[in-house]
Amino acid sequence: MNWARLHLDNVRVSERQWRLLTACFPKASFHSTKVDKVIKVDGIDNSLCPYATLPNDWNAYLDALSTNTRQKIRRLLKQVDASSEYRITVATSETFDRDLKTLLGFWDTKWRARKADRMDGLIRSNGT
């Protein structure tokens, strides 16, 4: 490859993985910088990448919850099932593009008023 610059954004890896990755680059010319992505208006840090380690299946997830929480979830799911406004599906390789478009549509509805000037670019960069 003939390139002189590599730019990575929002890399979520352990310190060990980061060291292994960056060890491949010449020390003299490689620089790593943490960019401040805190929104001044409300203090939201956009560099945070929250995640949750989930069990392998839905029932194992439910088993880890309290009885009260399981009941609330089941009640909510019954309401969703009874309504024709929304449906819960499992994405497949055939439905992935459509499902991602739907998810980004929800995100657009939530954030367009606040991120209007950047919204189209943000959605484009996330897969549609």
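(the above was protein one; protein two follows)
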Amino acid sequence: MRWLILTFFLLTAPASQAQQQGWGDLDTLLLQTLSPTGDMVSSFWMPDHQDPAAARHALAIIYSHIPGSAGNVSIHSGLFERTSSGWSLRQQVTGLFGQSPSDPKHLPDRIEVTTATLGPNDPRCCPTQSTRWWIDPRTGAAHPSN
């Protein structure tokens, strides 16, 4: 009986916020393309335009639980592009780290984003520094700007 109730609620649940805004099922897309473990603790979708109909490129960042750890996460990111059949992963991003990505900028030759990173005396839980990154869209390599 519990199974039937759970199934009913899952089938009748409202669409995610991203789906309601016209982005499609981003959770499934990001789980299938970026998550090495099939789980996702949090995700960030940073398109080149806030209007789903106008967006052509996006930077996505997810955090996945590290199996066997006490709540630690790993970062995985990729560059996506809109095709005639929807969004697809164009390039994995390498070298990016940090938490709470913010302030993305899509420029002709690079993508920039800021993350919270550990300072010299920070405990592992609590980054107090910020790092501005630039990502080469051809290679997916992330480089610190500051």
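Reviewer note on protein two: DSSP finds three helices and eight strands in the chain.
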